[in-house]
């Protein structure tokens, strides 16, 4: 009789971001929202 057991241990840590990364993420989110809104208005005109 063979017993094979495999264990995984997963640790999740909250990533700390600095001010520059936060500013870049905010810019990216804003551009994404603007492009999405533009695509929606173009789609409604067609």
Radius of gyration equals 22 Å
Terminus-to-terminus distance? 68 Å
Number of helical stretches of at least 4 residues: 1
Estimate the mean pLDDT confidence. Answer: 87
Tell me which oligomeric state these chains represent: single chain
Low-confidence stretches: none
Largest sheet: none
What fraction of residues sit in β-strands?
A: under 5%
Number of strands: 0
Which structural class should the secondary elements be placed in?
A: mainly alpha
What's the shape?
elongated
Pfam families: Bac_small_YrzI (PF09501)
InterPro entries: YrzI
Organism: Neobacillus mesonae
Protein name: YrzI family small protein
Describe the structure concisely for a colleague.
With 46 residues, the chain is mostly helical.
Structure characterization notes:
- The chain has 46 residues and is an all-alpha fold.
- Helices cover 59% and strands 0% of the residues.
- It has 1 helix and no strands.
- The protein is elongated, with a radius of gyration of 22 Å.
- The termini are far apart.
Notable traits:
YrzI family small protein, mainly alpha, 46 residues, YrzI
Topology:
Blueprint: H1 19-45
């Amino acid at each position: 009789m063979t017993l094979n057991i495999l264990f995984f241990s997963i640790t999740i840590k909250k990533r700390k971001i600095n001010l520059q990364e936060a500013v870049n993420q905010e810019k990216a989110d804003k551009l994404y929202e603007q492009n999405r809104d533009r695509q929606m208005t173009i789609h409604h005109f067609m």
